[in-house]
């Protein structure tokens, strides 16, 4: 990390203190485009994504574009994603790009450069990554993230129902695979003073006590909040009353209120109020 560069954990803590912990998704699902009266093509994507970003970026600490819905439109979709990232950053919002990349060696290094390197067209403040080719396969990404003052969120115990088959599996010492991932992330964060740059993804729909997050010293992205059924009570049941370091993620439950920007902002503020209650 260059002198004077603020680590991701510190930047995230400051953003949450100012705007709250909500992570708002920008997921241009074709069904949502239709609900907004837009065509499921590059033009509809652009209208949807830019409208949502303009409405939400100034309201939340973290904006999470889902890369797959942009990639589906080829180079035109990627160009829109670049604009979304730039708009969000101009509004002072951290961008967590949901790409879930996971590979080995030079390929993982290339993914890291694409999404985290300073000056890259798709450079975000943080990305989601998959550790299921081995946690150490993520080293190129973790090293670049730390050098750039960026972050990563490692899939540990996700909210999709079919995830349990693999994530509940036991490793040699008896821990679940999900817990071993959390523990590996904690080791990377052990020396960070204000929260580390390696977060984990742990769904708001998982069972209470499934993961021990006490030593993580990093953020937790909690999908499943809102449209997937998890409530504020579920967040507290899974993560504890104070929700330390937890970023509840909501996309469809907010985006369904569009296309009016005022309605989108009202939806975000209602969710933020519920999290404070």
What does this structure look like?
It is a single chain. This protein is of the alpha/beta class. It has a single domain, classed as TIM Barrel, CATH 3.20.20. The protein is built from twelve helices and eight strands. The protein has helices at 8-19, 30-35, 42-56, 67-71, 74-90, 105-116, 139-148, 164-167, 177-189, 232-239, 252-255, 261-276; strands spanning 23-26, 62-65, 94-101, 126-129, 151-157, 198-202, 220-222, 246-250.
CATH top level label: Alpha Beta
Biggest β-sheet: strands ordered side by side in the sheet: 1-2-3-4-5-6-7-8
Alpha-beta content class: alpha/beta
Looking at the structure, the CATH topology is: TIM Barrel
What share of residues are in beta strands?
A: 5-15%
Oligomer: single chain
**Shape, please?**
globular
Radius of gyration, in angstroms, nearest whole number: 18 Å
Average pLDDT score: 93
What is the count of DSSP helices, taking H or I runs of 4+ residues? 12
Query: What's the number of extended β-strand segments?
Result: 8
Order of helices and strands: HEHHEHHEHEHEHHEEHEHH
Q: What is the domain tally?
A: 1
Distance between the termini: 38 Å
CATH architecture: Alpha-Beta Barrel
């Amino acid at each position: 990390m260059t002198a004077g560069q603020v680590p991701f954990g510190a930047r995230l803590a400051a953003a949450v203190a100012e705007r709250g912990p909500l992570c708002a998704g920008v997921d241009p699902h074709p069904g949502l485009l239709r609900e907004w009266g837009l065509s499921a093509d590059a033009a509809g994507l652009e209208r949807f994504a830019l409208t949502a970003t303009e409405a939400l970026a100034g309201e939340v600490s973290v904006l999470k574009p889902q890369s797959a819905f942009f990639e589906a439109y080829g180079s035109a979709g990627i160009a829109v994603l670049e604009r979304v990232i730039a708009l969000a950053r101009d509004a002072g919002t951290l961008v967590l790009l949901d790409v879930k990349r996971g590979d080995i060696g030079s390929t993982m290094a290339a993914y890291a450069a694409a999404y985290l390197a300073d000056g890259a067209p798709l450079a975000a403040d943080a990305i989601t990554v998959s550790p299921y080719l081995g946690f150490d396969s993520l080293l190129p990404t973790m090293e670049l993230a730390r050098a750039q003052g960026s972050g990563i969120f490692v899939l540990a115990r996700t909210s999709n129902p079919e995830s349990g088959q693999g994530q509940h599996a036991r490793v040699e010492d008896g821990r679940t695979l999900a817990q071993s991932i959390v523990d590996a992330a904690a080791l990377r964060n052990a020396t960070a003073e204000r929260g580390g740059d390696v977060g984990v993804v742990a769904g708001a729909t998982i069972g209470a006590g499934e993961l021990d997050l006490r030593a993580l010293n990093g953020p937790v992205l909690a999908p499943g909040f809102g449209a997937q059924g998890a409530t504020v009570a579920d967040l507290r049941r899974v993560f504890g009353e104070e929700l330390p370091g937890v970023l509840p993620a909501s996309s469809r439950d907010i985006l369904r209120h569009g296309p009016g920007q005022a309605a989108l902002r009202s939806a975000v503020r209602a969710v933020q109020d519920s999290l404070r209650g």
